[in-house]
Amino acid sequence: MKEYYQIEDLPIELKNELKDSASFFDNFEGKSLDEQQRIACILNDCDLEIIAGAGTGKTHTLLAKAEYLIEKKNISPDDILFLSFSKSCVEELIEKLNYNVPTSTIHSFGLSLINEYRDKEVYDGRGFKKIFEEYLKTASDKQIDDITNYCENNLNSHDMIKLIELDREIEKFNHLISKSNISSRIKSFIDLFKGKGYVASDFKKIKSKCKHDFETNNGGYYTNKNYLNNMAFIQIVEPVFRFYEGYLFKNHLIDFNDMINKAIDLVENKGIFNNFKYIFVDEYQDISYKNFQFIKTLKQACNAHLVVVGDDWQSIYGFRDSDITLFNDFCDYFPNANRVFIEKTYRNPQELIDIAGNFIMKNESQFKKSLKSDKSIEKPVKIIFDRDSDSIYNLIYNLSKDNERVFILGRYNGDIDKFIFDTGLVKKSKGSYKQITNDHESIKNVEYRTIHKAKGLEADYVVLINVFNRDWGFPNKFYPPYFVNLIQDWDYDKKLEEERRLFYVAITRAKKGVYIFTEDYNQSEYIDELIDENNLELIYSDDFNRFKEFDSVEEEDVKANLIDLSDFDNSEGIEIKANQKDFGNKLLKSRKYDEAEDFYKKLITNMYFLNDYYPYRKLVEVYYKKRDNLNVINTVEEFFKSGRFCNESQVLWFESKYKKACKYSGYSFSNFDACLDYFNEHGLKNKDKQNEPVPIAARIQSGGGKVKIISQEAHNIKSEYHELSLKYKSARSSKKALYFFEQLWDRKEFTKNLTAYKRLCSLYYDTQQYEKVIEVATEYFNSDARKTKSSPAWFNKKIAEASKKLDKSPVNESSNPIKTTNLSNDELLFKYADLYEKGLLTKYEFDRKKKELLFNDD
């Protein structure tokens, strides 16, 4: 394998060929090909991998190479095959090709090969929900129960509350199926499963591997809960898969995976193919293993030269089973191949190229490229700390008014509802997005797309929205489901690398500039990284205008903000506390991290912050920005051991910073669980005392230069109600949630509505206090809640269930609360884990039961 970067790398005969063909390359379709594009066109006696950076004109190069073969090498157009992965790419190639070259998507080409031999129609994957509904009609009671339990365990708190309020069982089940998105998950799994060549008999191996990985903790993040969740999913999907395969057979259908398998078989064993001399594959970085097998089989059968083009920096479809290693290791799979780099970009200014290139090369698995551009624009990337819809509207209007094309890009489809619709800029109509007017002003040339849908396209400006630091932020921090990893070699590190490539794709769509909208102090780690390593323009909302100039922060200012507050009355104290927060923000924005570190350390012992999480959070933020991972870890641990109160979302924030610091420093994440256990035991006890050391209304909101006082009592009620609505997440056990809910129940400010009665019943039921369940349910029937909104069926059912439990519970029942009759080992393990999660089994007891079941051959 040889790599070519410049003409000097070529042998003398190819240099002479370039000279002889100069007139062709100097004016192809009105453009002159650059040096590297010309090299790609004349390397025709080998397999060839063309690595073309964003905006380098890869499509133009492919067209030139094809026409060069036809006009200069006397290759017939019928001897060249163009393959791509998307219809839009195929349509573009057909439109621009001057010759009738066979051009198709891979699936369409595979279908054309089997047409003569197939006796079945191809099922395109649409309508799987109907197949799943057919399965549900024939499923056993146990299979329905398995689906119900799995869906309930994967609902968010809002959907779970909605479920509780539904009376009819059929309504509940339909709600579960809809909100858990179970049919879509199963369809995605089946596509991956078949794409890897698995068959129904392989489920046994997958279950065995799942148990082995759980016992050995292979993967690191494999907890009791997600093990059982994954096993439950596999238990569900196996019979659905068998039904799906039977449905296809019964209805004389084949899916895309079957079709590709059939095409491979026909090419290998029946010689069904055209004798192509050259096979071109576009966007090769997105190839899956199944498509790779098909292309390799076709190439070998035809004895054709394979020409692939792509960019490893833009490989963003791992979730669809694309495998970047098939691109990166191309020359290992095809030993006689050569490699060409195309590095001159015609889209982005050099300043944007440098920012994007440095960003993407943080990944370990990327080819090093030196992209160059003749364009130059000062500070093409701007970070905007603002979510105000008017500000965003004004920006987009100003960008588009001179007929400039503007892309509004989001990481998720859900960003449409949360962001774009709020501004009134666009609306959805029959699957596409159309402009609408806002204040009777027309906004033209503005398109909203997800980043995935924008790949391969370009605009004058890119507006990238919702770049926040959260699980469903950017990057997406959720671990890929383990059951996906069982069949697809795609771990968490690979997922994060793909997230970085996705961000790279977003910002390199721009020809002139990029505007990234984020939220101050909740910005993505990508934002911090870009700011730290580049000279970017930062734009703040009106709330932060007073912090735009930072050079005047001196040590005297720091000292002045640490004066003793004990002599001030309440109103002065509130204002000073707000000012201290503002001053700390000022230090952070000015990047005076050492001063900020000293400032927040002193705030920890300040009387106005004695039981407040705030100074610890800001100190963690300081260390995070300084890349001081060990101090991030130490500060988080110190906070949880301090016994100070914070709510569930704040716990998740600390956890995310702790997890990243552990990853970058090699520190064990297991210590975090111990810290959290200590916090749940001690920190929660301080919840009602969270503001006692402060002699004023301790909760304030500061914004726009104004201080808003929130009454202590109202804050406690609000925060406790929110905390208890997330009972299993924040309190980590039903017992602890019940402890606080009983306190709320007795307060006059607390509203005893239908949901509250149901929640208390559920908590008593979960903690096996069945007499209390009956007592509360009976109380409900005589309460005002019954008069305003009635749900007698739910409470009658709870009374019946509790009574049944009381009748079946012997007085001297052993400490094991599970009846083991007719339960499989997997079901028993699931139930033991549920008891452990609720605090009804000790860790020792659960580990003992787990080992017994895992090593018991049933």
TrEMBL record:
Binding site for ATP: 52-59
Reaction equations catalysed: Couples ATP hydrolysis with the unwinding of duplex DNA by translocating in the 3'-5' direction; ATP + H2O = ADP + phosphate + H(+)
Lineage top rank: taxon: Archaea
GO biological process terms on file: recombinational repair
EC number: 5.6.2.4
Single GO MF descriptor: ATP binding
Cellular component terms (Gene Ontology): cytosol
Key words of the record: ATP-binding, Helicase, Hydrolase, Isomerase, Nucleotide-binding
Domain UvrD-like helicase ATP-binding: 31-349
Entries under InterPro entries matching the protein: DExx_box_DNA_helicase_dom_sf, DNA_helicase_UvrD-like_C, DNA_helicase_UvrD/REP, P-loop_NTPase, UvrD-like_ATP-bd
Pfam families xref list: UvrD-helicase (PF00580), UvrD_C (PF13361)
Top-rank EC class of the record's enzyme: isomerase
PROSITE patterns: UVRD_HELICASE_ATP_BIND
Family designation: Belongs to the helicase family. UvrD subfamily.
Name the UniProt record assigns to this protein: DNA 3'-5' helicase
Organism: Methanobrevibacter smithii DSM 2374
